[in-house]
Design brief:
CATH architecture: Beta Barrel
Strand content: over 45%
InterPro entries: FApF
Distance between the termini: 23 Å
Pfam families: Phenol_MetA_deg
Order of helices and strands: EEEEEEEEEEEEEE
Protein name: Transporter
Helix content: under 10%
Structural class: mainly beta
CATH topology: Porin
Number of strands: 14
Length: 180
Amino acid sequence: MGRRTSTFWFQHDAKTGHFFGITPFITAPTGQYDHNAALSVGEHRWKFELQAGYITPVVTPRLKLMLAAGVTFFTRNNDYGPARQSLAQDPLGETQEWLTYDLTPKLQLRAGSFQYFGGAQSLDDIKLNVSHTATVNFKVGLSYAVAPGWNLLALYGRDTEVQNGFREAYRLNFRIYKAF
């Protein structure tokens, strides 16, 4: 699935450390989709997501609170499964809360939680009984600035509550990213 985005900054004050932005995501159905396969790379539908995020220092400029909330809207997949049914999905909500602490100008410690909720599904306009999701997970990690704009990120996390989904006993992520 192709995904393109750009953040619109309504507050971007590096001097005070206050930031507020809204990011729209559009995910196009570009992956391979096979309605007969139990698992496909593509979903055969569009997704439209809107996220808002706020960052502010807490007590000291080295300790920051990051808050984010988002909602994802889905178009129908009218070719779902071997019977080629119509799959619809209600909006899926998400919230995130993070505390970060700058140990050094290049090394940052972080801890946060994620919550996902909603997203009930229906086939041919008949609601599935256990289709909505409710997930809570926690993560801790470190990020390191290896060069201006380039960061390494390591996160460890686990789900603490899962309703109608797969429970992750643990998650370990490593990421290299470029901040623009």
